[in-house]
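ingest -> fold -> write
write: protein_1
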Amino acid sequence: MRTSTLAPLYRSTVGFDQIADLMDRVLTKDVSQNNFPPYNIEKTDENGWRISIAVAGFSDADLNIELRETSLIVTGTKPDEDDDRSYLHRGIATRAFERRFHLADHVKVTGATNENGMLHIELVREVPEALKPRRIEIAKAPVAEGSLVEGEAVN
């Protein structure tokens, strides 16, 4: 089995830690990573996305959405049910979960809704005016008097 390491990248670059960390996370195959609950990431427009997470059985009070720097963390905890139910088959999972999403720079969470067992989190990229590309007009250089040379036509 061949494994790759990003150590050469770390020792030969400065200031690219986020890119190296992202590549390291992508290349690391953690087989113990939980796939619960399932989710979709949808592109809604050029600068907008929606994360939809299947949270059947969880109420708004059971869910928590937190933004820490560039990480979006969604957690769900369901209180233990101490009832006398006897299940023949229990296929609806209401176990506690934590989902983490790494957001790019300038991506903001604009809202969240929980409807019909789906938690929808709206995201938008808001680039500050100072970082947006802008066109610089080229001004005409002023011509000083006396700097013009009189020329005579030849022919």
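write: protein_2
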Amino acid sequence: MPNATIGNIAKYMEELAPLAWAEAWDNVGLQVGDPDRPVQRIMVALEATDAVVDEAIAAEADLLVVHHPPIFKALKAIRFDTPVGGRLERLIRAGVGVYAAHTNLDQAPGGTNDALAALVGLTEFTVLHKVGEEPYMKLVVFVPRGHEDAVRGALAAAGAGHIGNYSHCTFQSPGTGTFLPLEGANPFLGEQGKLEHADELRLETILPESRVSGAVRAMIAAHPYEEVAYDLYPLANVGRPRGHGRIGRLAEPVTLGALAGRLKLALGLTQVTAVGNLDGIISTVAVGAGAGGDLVAHASRQGADVLITGDVKYHTAQDALDAGLSMIDIGHYHSERIVVGPLAACLRERVRQDGLSVAVVEAQAGTDPFRAV
């Protein structure tokens, strides 16, 4: 199997969470390392604490992928006798690169907020605070009759053809494709030197811009032709919303106290903090991974019964009560660490698709700095 490079993994991460989606004040992307350096083992963690750095070095990881950027504020010096400088020194000496996806991962499909919404059990959730739109593209491919379902299924699995609550959305129309296999060709249909007229279907679908690379790879892998003819068109349709937080409904209403207990059990916590009437009925839930107190107004306006987040401040809780909104504070760490597993799984699948020899492991050393006493 071919080897991967740090640059390959950075490309995969930027397909999932484009750098342009990060807030202006953020610092994301490759922070330590050479894009051309080979990668055989990746470790995924919430942040590069001393314990995680020790674990990455002991595991002989070549790249550490984290949510919280270790280089966040501008550094005027890299002093090895400081916590940040010391960690950077150890990582560099051990040859471990560092890639950070922060507020761009918060907005990304499958990112931190999607992971939290899934943990809570929300159905048909949408973006809570929209900050932009991801453009749509149209992909058109020409497929020999009888193979259209395989190609359609591959495209759907790669994120194409999803419109609202529907998947596998395509349009197909019949036609005739022509091609003349030249010397050296190994045609699925026809013979070298003879013009072939093939019964084909024009298959077209819609997809978000960030899904184009993966969808094209999946389409080509499922297509029987040696050379695949396809077109990509930019669309003027309203793009897919992107932004912070998510809002959706529970499968069945529960009380605030019961929902808090469910989260405590799911996250393995001894306590969480609730704001509001514990006997109040909760149906519509907003979530904001990390410090989501600034989402209170958005959650209230969109009819949420509760906002689940971390780092809730006193005055934020009072504002929520004034707005008739309950809150559950599960802590910054616990609201975000749940993305580590899905992100590692995504990278495993991505390197598998490209046939790269890379192991992806999840850090076990990450811990919440707060303790219940």
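write: annotation protein_2
The first strand starts at residue 4 and ends at 5.
The mean pLDDT is 95.
pipeline exit 0
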